[in-house]
Each structure stands twice: as C-alpha cells, then as structure tokens.
Amino acid sequence: MNLNKNTKILIVGLGLMGGSYAIALKKKGYSVGCITRSRESVDFALEKGIIDYGSTTPDPAVIGEADLLVFALYPHVFIDWIEKWQKYLKPGALLTDVTGVKTSVVYKIQALLREDVEFIAAHPMTGREVYGVKNSTDAIFREANYIVTPTAKNTPEAIETAKRLGEELGFARISQLTPEEHDEIIAFVSQLTHCIAVSLMTCNSLDRLEDYTGNSFRDLTRIAHINEDMWSELFLLNKKALLNEMELFQKQFEKLRRSLEEEDLETMKAIMRQSTERRDAFDRG
Amino acid sequence: MNLNKNTKILIVGLGLMGGSYAIALKKKGYSVGCITRSRESVDFALEKGIIDYGSTTPDPAVIGEADLLVFALYPHVFIDWIEKWQKYLKPGALLTDVTGVKTSVVYKIQALLREDVEFIAAHPMTGREVYGVKNSTDAIFREANYIVTPTAKNTPEAIETAKRLGEELGFARISQLTPEEHDEIIAFVSQLTHCIAVSLMTCNSLDRLEDYTGNSFRDLTRIAHINEDMWSELFLLNKKALLNEMELFQKQFEKLRRSLEEEDLETMKAIMRQSTERRDAFDRG
After folding, report:
1. Are residue B161 and residue B247 in the same domain, yes or no?
2. Judged by CB atoms within 8 Å, which residues 239-278 of A form the interface with B?
3. Is B275's CB within 8 Å of A177's CB?
4. What is the ipTM of this complex?
5. How far apart are CA B39 and CA B51, in angstroms?
6. CB of B50 within 8 A of CB of B22?
7. How many CB pairs below 8 Å do chains A and B form together?
8. Which of B149, B177, B205 is the last residue of a domain?
9. Which of A18, A27, A272, B46 could be bridged to A11 by S-S, CB 3.0 to 4.6 A?
10. CATH number at residue B213
11. Which among B190, B249, B279 is the nearest to A224, CB-wise?
12. Would you say B115 and B173 are in contact if contact means Cβ atoms under 8 Å apart?
C-alpha cells in the first residue's frame, strides 16, 4: 500500500496520540476516520473537524473501507482487537501502531494476522502529561523522533509507507531499528527516566517544595505525572530490558554515592566530567 | 544597612551569577562595582555597562567604599577572602552571598567576621548550564526562588535587606529558612537531582542517542552538564544531608525495581499514583 491522497486512514483509539495523528493527517488532506470507545471523543472530534467519520464500536463497514489503520491502544487491547475484528479488514490493508514497546507486541500481532494484510510497527516518541483527544495537537511531533521497527516479515513497501507516514505527521527525525534494538533503547531513554522521576517524586515528602525548588527538580519530575495503567503495562512488557537498565543505573548511582561517602574527589569528578562530555556530545548530536 | 539608591554594591566574583546580579542591580539604578580575578571579565563588564568600576585584585579602596558586598565565589575561596581582606571592610557593611550550601559556610564566616560588619546568607536558586559573565542575564531570576538563611547572629534589619535585595533582583518567590533546613531541602531538590542526572548520563553508553530520545531523557539530563569543581565541593560540604537523600532515593528506586522483577502490579501502580498526586500538588503549589 502506498500513501497517497486517496488513502483512507482509520485511527483505532482516539486518545491523545490517536487524536494528534488525526489532526496532522487531516491537515494534509487525508480522509481520516476513527473507532474509539467513547461517544464523547467521537463527538468532540467530529465537531472540531479532526475526523471525517467515527464510530464507538468496531463497525465492519468502517473497518472494511480502511487502507491504513493506526492502532493507538493499550498493547493487550490492541492484540484483542486484532483477534476479534481482523476478519473485516480489507485485503491489502496496512496496519501500523504507536505502541511504546515492540518485541512483545510486534511478533504476536504478525503471527496472528491474516496473510493478506500487513502490520508494520512504529513508535512516535512523543507525548504529553495530559490525556485524551481534547489535548491532542500535532505540535508534539515537531521536535520528536519517529522509529519504524520492521521484522523479517515486512515488505520494503510497508517500511517505506510507515516512514512516509512519519514524514506526513511532521516528525523531526525518522529512523529504523529492529524491535529488540528499539526495546533496549526505550528501556534506557524513556522507561528508566520514568522510573527515576517516579522514585524521586515519592522518596521524600518535604512540604512546600514549590517554594524552594530550582528548575532541576521541576525538569526531573515533569514526567512523574504518569498514567499508571499504561506505564505499568509497558514496563511489564519490556521487563527484561528495563530491569537491565535499572541495574546499570543503580550501579552508577551507588558508585557516585560511595565516592561522596569516602570523599573520593577523583572518582566523583571523573564521573561528572564524563557526564558533561556525554551531554555535550548529545547536544551536538 | 538599608538598601537605597545610594547603596554602593560590590560584587566579588563576576561569573554567571555575579554578572547576573550586576545586570539586575544596574538596571535598578544602583552603583555596582566588582572584584574578580579575570581581566577579561572586568573589561567585558565595563564595556557592556554591567558594572561601574572593576578591579582584578582586592583593592582596599574599592572594598572600603562598599555598603553591600555580594560574594559569588566557591565556598573555600569565599572563606579565604574574608580571612585575608575583611580588614578593609567599611564599618557597618553588609555581606551576603550566593553559595549553594549554608550550614558549612555561614557559621564559619560569621565566626571569623569582624563585629562591626554583618553577613546574611542567601541562596538564589537559579543558574544556567553555561558559565561566566558573558552568559549572565537577569532573566534567570524571573521564575526562580530566593532563600534567605539567617542565624541567631543576624539582625532583623539585615534579614529585611537581604529580602529586599531578592525583590530588587526580580525573584518570583522569596523565603526564609534556617541554614539546616536549607541544606536538607537543597540536598533533595538540587543536589540529589544532579546526582541522578549525572548517573543517568554515565550509566549506559548507547550510541546515537539523539536519534531515539523523547523529551524525557533530554529533560532529565539537562543538568548533567556540570561544573565538576563547584559541584564536588558543594556535595562534600553537604555530605551528611546529601547521603541521606541519596539513600532515600535508592530505597524507593529499589522498591520500584523489585515490583517490576516480581511483577507486583499493585505496588508498582501505587507508587505511580502517589507520584502523580504529588506532582499535581507541586504544580498547584
């Protein structure tokens, strides 16, 4: 399937991310529909012109017309949905997603999917600390990374289309990784950072913090406002990689703590120097 | 000493913070001079009109004219300076500082200071990841907190003047803590966050991170660009409080890690819910 202006796009799950996809794709002139549980979300999206049509149930007619389906669901809901409703998919339809973990989802979906449709996984690395279609905006794509994670089952055409979709959405950088590479990197740059923010926010209950904090505490805990159902599911689905990253972090943090305890200035400064060098390299990226 | 438009202010140490003080105070119409080691910094500041006069050595005449002195030096340099040059201070002069730790500095300075001058400690909770007078700007005060940390030795008048100075600089919130309260809070909201950022930045050496990161990693490592001489000194000077905060954080992080390892969803979600509640309270604060 090639992405063109006649492509009928169906968003399954119209929350913050699904809604933001809809906004960006409508602006580009695509026909965009949605299936989502909440009547209120469908009505809101229709009223705002974010979608052309919407349904609160998996309507076989709506499913059967879609050329490209974007799944923006919790992983277990996504897998259930495919099992129950894939029979209505149009032959040749392309499926993609926004799921934050890949290895535990992609192979499962591809294994149970009909032979005449294709699933190409992708991860838009963006979000907000607020939820729902009402908070959707395509501004969240502008500075963000979009990662396509094909497997041996994917066709070059589908990979190309997924990348085109990332471009159409307005992402700053589009890259390609295996599901396994993706999950290792995500465990580090996204899941570990959320573990840190949550631990920092809950490890000490000092009162009236807001009177005494600089920007650093604010920055480190921005993501401490967290959707516990979604993130606990994503953590469990990437358990092995995330545990590994958590342990690497614990070791390094303990090394720094010990250098303070022992007043080992040499080690402390060496860690800080390496930190500065790496952060500089990261900025130059 | 009361702050008024005839007050002669002397900044000792014209780096990022000293320079930013000078900019803000000159805008308010004060006479502002500086003593700082670097000729280049003095020349730059004179050329930009950030100061009225400057010296690269502790000129007795310059010291003796100042009504209010702001010390923006490394703690050990600050203490040395007082020992060597306090003899030139004008009787009745008020001294304040910008040092990031208090207990280990304030009592020492007050103990060795002449009886006819007064030191009132303050901590402007702001900064940038770049250094030097060339990066100075009073914009860093706008959203920031300013904490005055008096001891039993301080007069109500000096406390009042220190708070007025915070207002004149343009800080958003001005508060008062004991040196001990300050150091406990700073260990948590500032020093611990720097320990975390540095550990995160150095615990894993994945390549080409910049292609795959969302905002969370960027936010959590902004402060990983760190001046190792300054921060290692500040850490050592607040060792006990910081070790305590590091251990609280380690315990909570380990609790979260174990909940993942044991797939104990209830504990994991409870930590996340508490995190969200506290972050919300913090934002409302």
Report:
1. no
2. 239, 242-243, 245-254, 256-257, 260-261, 263, 265, 268-269, 271-276, 278
3. no
4. 0.90
5. 13
6. yes
7. 285
8. B177
9. A18
10. 1.10.3660.10
11. B279
12. no
